[in-house]
Design brief:
single chain, 321 residues, Quinone Oxidoreductase, Chain A, domain 1, Rossmann fold, seven-stranded mixed sheet, six-stranded parallel sheet, 12 helices
Length: 321
């Protein structure tokens, strides 16, 4: 049981989504973790004990998992993720793959404990943080009329729904048949696998490619090549997904110059995008419950990680107890 200091809050974890970033960290592919640490940042729970005057026992909560100083230039510009003093819940301090989570006073004082109405179930609330990441990327990305989304995992499918709301034609490239089917059910205009024949069919269907590509998968060399293959000249590629720490992006500068591509990488969220995610979930303007396909008790954590690693279903989560 975590020990509380003055101003801290104890959260009883109901559910915590298994994030691809945690799987990448366990594989040694990314480096922004400080083990030993309890992972898990896509959490939903109930306040079990409060030593903070502004938090009440029984509140239905999730977290903004980036605890930053709140005072530097980045924090004042709503770019907390670049703060030099950042501590990540589930990255640097213990997170949600547990029965209880300690939310420190500093995080509460800087607005990182997010309360929602009691009627919002944990099965929706765990999506608030990843949805905030996608909303943030939608604001940063350059769009015209069409977008290709590489990958139809939980993030890719959220992008499908957000693209629909933005009035964009949304196409998905995904090797797994059950995830292509999910993409169509959630509103994608068409879904293709990543074989050469299907990529050719995609190019025919889109009349030569799309204006924008969002890579919502692991950005290894195959995904990088696919992104450049399906984007039109003058188009934008957002390398949203994680990449192995040794992955490099190499481009011929002359070809890049004449292709006119806009390259970018969105990651994480802003306080603004988390507020938007909260609003959409609370208002019911987006329904993400169908994305949660597997739920594991904390005692079967390894089984849960393996399920997510094998990409069975769409989203896996762990119950806190």
């Amino acid at each position: 049981m975590p020990t509380l200091d003055t101003g801290d809050v104890l959260v009883k974890v109901d559910l915590c989504g298994i994030c691809a970033s945690d799987l990448a960290a366990l594989n040694g592919d990314i480096t922004d973790y400080s083990p030993p640490v309890v992972m898990g940042h896509e959490l939903a729970g109930i306040v079990a004990e409060s030593r903070h005057p502004n938090v009440t026992v029984g509140e239905n909560v999730t977290v903004n998992p980036m605890l930053s100083c709140g005072n530097c230039d980045y924090c004042r510009a709503d770019l907390d993720k670049y703060c030099s003093q950042i501590e990540g819940i589930g990255h640097d301090i213990d997170g949600g793959y547990a029965e209880y989570l300690r939310m420190p006073k500093h995080g509460i004082d800087t607005g990182k404990l997010i309360s929602v109405p009691d009627r919002i179930p944990a099965e929706e609330l765990i999506f608030l943080e990843p949805l905030g990441c996608c909303i943030n990327a939608m604001r940063e990305t350059i769009f015209d009329k069409s977008v290709a989304i590489l990958g139809a995992g939980p993030i890719g499918l959220m992008f499908v729904k957000l693209a629909n709301k933005a009035g964009l034609r949304a196409f998905v490239l995904e090797p797994l048949a059950h995830r292509r089917s999910a993409a169509i059910e959630l509103g994608a205009d068409a879904a293709f696998d990543s074989s050469p024949e299907q990529v050719e069919a995609f190019m025919d269907n889109t009349n030569g490619g799309v204006n924008t590509v969002i890579s919502a998968t692991v950005n290894n060399q195959r995904a990088i090549n696919l992104a450049f293959a399906v984007v039109r000249r003058g188009g934008c590629i957002n390398f949203f997904g994680l990449a192995p720490s040794d992955q490099e992006l190499r481009i011929n500068l002359e070809h890049f110059h004449y292709s006119g591509h806009r390259l970018m990488a969105s990651w994480a969220f802003s306080r603004w995008s988390l507020r938007e995610a909260r609003r959409m979930i609370v208002d019911g303007t987006i329904d993400l419950k169908p994305l949660l396909t597997h739920r594991f008790p904390i005692e079967k954590a390894i089984e849960g990680f393996e399920n997510a690693q094998q990409q069975r279903g769409v989203k896996s989560a762990m119950s806190g107890g």
